[in-house]
Specification:
The protein is of the alpha+beta class and 291 residues long. The chain is 26% helix and 25% strand.
Length: 291
């Protein structure tokens, strides 16, 4: 049996155990900062004490930020490659069916109503069967793939799937321009337990106001941006309530600029081969409940 399979089974077994004993979390508890390289080494060591403690910590609502995951040089190259693609092809939309290409979409308030979660952003969607933007795909997957083991998956689980297989892996690179946001929500943990994020910009340098927050047991919004640097990777249990406050609301969004907040996410999705009513999707959380 391959080591990756052993690791997958150990993490998955611990997840199944804790999920059978306690309801899924909704509240943020605390922030933990660690070095990316050191943390990935711990994942591969397969130490049972580590597996038990990390699963328990995540399930109790802890946010992990892994520092120095992607070099500044590679962050800049990644943004350059995504920007070049998104400014050489038209903004469009494709359902996740066989043969879906990589594509980008400028999602404004008018388009936002078509999604389960309201948001304003410029998204570029990358699928593993397409060769475009291969540098960016490699950089993101090298940084994030080990976290699939942590989530109870195998390293390459779903990576060779296509839409006909019902579950696919997808990377999304997002620029939140001035006025960009995501309404408060929680995600579904059925396909992957973790929200895996890559941070490509820094508050105070690339934008001034707004950003990522989590919600604690007192329904308070806790801004996390001060602890985040470009090149970091973050993760937390998918059902925690979170959102993104409006980025630089005093500025006008412009398609051709690069200002704002840059982010990417690795996720597993039901393709559009699955009936809409049976897909695992996110759900909004009522704003009136947040102080």
């Amino acid at each position: 049996m391959k080591n990756t399979e052993i690791e997958k089974n150990l993490f998955k077994e611990e997840w199944n155990k804790i999920e059978s004993l306690k309801p899924k979390p909704s509240n943020y508890r605390k922030l933990i900062l660690l070095d990316h390289k050191e943390f990935v080494s711990k994942i591969h060591e397969k130490d049972f004490g580590f597996i038990k403690s990390i699963v328990e910590s995540i399930y109790n609502g802890d946010l992990y930020i892994l520092k120095n995951a992607i070099s500044k040089e590679n962050v800049d190259k990644l943004i350059d490659e995504i920007y070049k693609f998104s400014h050489s092809t038209p903004s469009t939309f494709h359902k996740m069916l066989e043969g879906v290409p990589n594509f980008h979409r400028w999602i404004d308030e008018k388009a936002a109503v078509n999604y389960c979660i309201k948001h304003v952003k410029h998204s570029t969607f990358l699928f593993p069967w397409n060769k475009e933007m291969s540098f960016s795909q490699k950089v993101m997957m090298d940084a994030c793939r080990p976290l699939k083991l942590l989530a109870g998956l195998s390293l390459y689980e779903f990576e060779n799937n296509t839409p006909k297989d019902k579950i696919i892996e997808r990377l999304q690179v997002v620029r939140y321009p001035p006025s960009g946001y995501i309404e408060p929500h929680f995600d579904n943990s059925s396909l992957i337990r973790l929200i895996i994020s890559g941070y490509l910009s820094k508050k105070g340098k690339h934008y001034e106001k707004g950003g990522f927050y989590l919600i604690d047991k007192k329904n308070g919004k806790l801004d996390m941006e001060d602890q985040i640097d470009a090149g970091d990777i973050g993760f937390f249990y998918a059902t925690l309530r979170h959102g993104l406050d409006v980025i630089d609301p005093h500025k006008k969004p412009e398609f051709d600029k690069r200002d704002g907040r840059w982010w990417f996410g690795l996720n597993m999705h039901n393709s559009d081969e699955v009936e809409a009513s049976k897909r695992h999707t996110a759900a909004p959380y009522k704003v009136s409940k947040i102080s």
